[in-house]
Amino acid sequence: MEWGRIIDTIEEKTGKSVCKELGIRPQYLSDLRSGKSKNPNSDFVLKLIEAFNLNSNWLLTGEGEMFITDIAESAPLQIIPQEGEEITGIPFYDIDVMAHIAESLDLKEETPAGVLSIPGFKDCIACFPVYGSSMEPKISNGDVIAVSQAVTCDQILWGEIYLVITNAWRVVKTVHPGKTEEYIILRSINPAYAGDTNVKKEDLRALYLVRGVVSRLGM
Q: Which of 76, 91, 128, 147 is the most exposed place for a label (fewest CB within 10 A)?
């Protein structure tokens, strides 16, 4: 999407001025609208997402819903366990993790929004909402993933889905061996998102194995 169209759409849908909400110079937006400035800085993008509660996937690709709907308001995550099945509470972080690249994440600096009771996931340490369609049909836009403790590169189960954290971003992808020992490869499941992402192992901050997916469509 063109940034001029993005800004116009945001202001039209919300009735608010991007300049006033973000406290930026009108000339900066004028340059984006005219195409003089084609790539806004990351600080502007992050402020835009936070100020207008935007879906990062929509902002980056034009796909999905424009605004993020609060999980607690849109669909209560209630799971009825089968007989004899143990229910374990897992911290829920109301931070979207992307089927596309988003900003980095440090769990030590985050506070859970609540706890989800999900049967059969004793060793999971956290749950997150996922936005984006590149991991369909395994993970759909708006689903919630449960992840286990962080693993080292030596513990990777090749081909499995991981929440991958680097110093700059976070993303949910399948993980595969790189062409050399220094790299891993990240891949989407949805064939519409073809192409590998090569990541240096030394740039990784954390790898969390996705142990389960809670579909909000079934709630």
A: 76
